[in-house]
Amino acid sequence: MKFTYTLSNIGWADVHLRIENSEIYTSPSYLSGAQAINLARLSI
């Protein structure tokens, strides 16, 4: 497994995750995570 991230802007990161022959690139944000948590709370 290889996990790397780079902080790219305020609140954002570039993430690369590789496990054996599978890999994913994503750009998560602490802002979008908070919105997802709030949406999950609304649906309960």
Structural description of this entry:
With 44 residues, this protein is an alpha+beta fold. It has one domain (2-42). Helix content is 30%, strand content 48%. The protein has one helix at 30-42; strands at residues 2-9, 12-19, 22-26. A three-stranded antiparallel beta sheet has the order 1-2-3, with no helix packed on it. The longest helix is centred in the last third of the chain and has 13 residues, at 30-42. The chain is elongated. The model is unreliable at 34-44 (pLDDT under 50).
Strand sequence of the main sheet, in spatial order?
1-2-3
Largest sheet: 3 strands, antiparallel
Number of strands: 3
Order of helices and strands: EEEH
Shape: elongated
Number of helices: 1
Sequence stretches where pLDDT stays below 50 over 5 or more residues: 34-44
Topology diagram in text:
Layout lengths: L1 E8 L2 E8 L2 E5 L3 H13 L2
Antiparallel strand pairs: 1-2, 2-3
Summarize the structure.
With 44 residues, the chain is an alpha+beta fold. Helix content is 30%, strand content 48%.
Task: Name its key features.
alpha+beta; 48% strand; disordered C terminus; three-stranded antiparallel β-sheet; single chain; 44 residues
